[in-house]
Specification:
The chain is about 30% helix and about 15% strand. It contains six helices and eight strands. It is an alpha/beta fold. Strand 1, helix 1 and strand 2 (about 35-40) form a beta-alpha-beta unit. It is globular.
């Protein structure tokens, strides 16, 4: 198995400090291989809890767009920041959330053995209805080949560092496009977020997934899908950008 690093995004708040402690403790308790690092969006030089777990600090991207305060901008942006700071890392990355608890190393080891360039493994998020809407998909993924199905996935993802370097900037860019679309009120309510209201029209879940096979290959774990053709597609996007 390639070197594995587990990363998760958090900000400098007591709420996320508790989550971070739980994530790191369970990671160690379950003997998950590799290291775990909190990607901390924090610009407060006086914050006392920076060192409670292994931490990489970076700019807080929640106000990337001042008229759209959205803390999940930090998840892809933190991955971009960490990769920029670790240009020599060539292993595998498990991108998780701070509120996730690790129960067993067995499935993670098995998943890591299947990850390779062009193959990203993630979990099914069935409520991401936006990927079923052809007009939405075509709007944000105009270069998606005909016949390619975009799976409903999210939460965690495991990928090679080379794929992460390609995916993370595109992930952030797509999130920005969806969140800041001038005509967003025409489609935000169709993306699958049950909490969209006229007062809060922007969805919390705002990402179109960018790499997918014509026929998703279901893994042994029924929650996971393996993406094909990711590397070629992302390379083309990266060049275009």
């Amino acid at each position: 198995m390639a070197d594995l690093v587990t990363l998760f995004s958090a900000d400098c708040s007591s709420y996320m400090d508790w989550q971070s402690l739980g994530a790191v403790y369970s990671h160690r308790k379950a003997s998950i291989p590799g290291s775990i690092t909190r990607l901390l969006a924090c610009e407060d030089q006086r914050y006392r809890h920076v060192s409670i777990v292994p931490t990489f600090t970076h700019k807080n991207f929640a106000l990337l767009h001042p008229d759209d305060p959205y803390s999940p901008y930090n998840k892809p942006a933190s991955l971009v920041s960490w990769l920029d700071a670790h240009p020599d890392f060539q292993g595998a990355i498990l991108m998780a959330d701070a509120d996730m608890i690790f129960l067993s190393a067995r499935d993670i080891v098995a998943t890591a053995s299947r990850v390779k360039p062009g193959h990203v493994i993630s979990a099914t998020y069935g409520y991401l209805k936006g990927v079923d809407e052809p007009d939405i998909v075509r709007r944000f993924l105009p270069d998606l080949p005909n016949g390619v199905v975009v799976p409903k996935v999210g939460g965690w993802a495991m990928m090679t560092a080379s794929d992460a370097r390609c995916i993370a900037p595109r992930w952030l860019n797509l999130t920005e496009q969806v969140r800041t679309a001038p005509d967003g009120k025409r489609f935000w309510h169709r993306l699958g977020d049950a909490y969209v209201t006229p007062a809060r029209p922007r969805p919390w879940i705002a990402v179109c997934r960018m790499c997918a096979p014509p026929k998703p290959v279901r893994q042994t774990d029924s929650r996971a899908f393996c993406f094909r053709r990711c590397t070629d597609s992302c390379s083309a996007w990266q060049t275009a950008a």
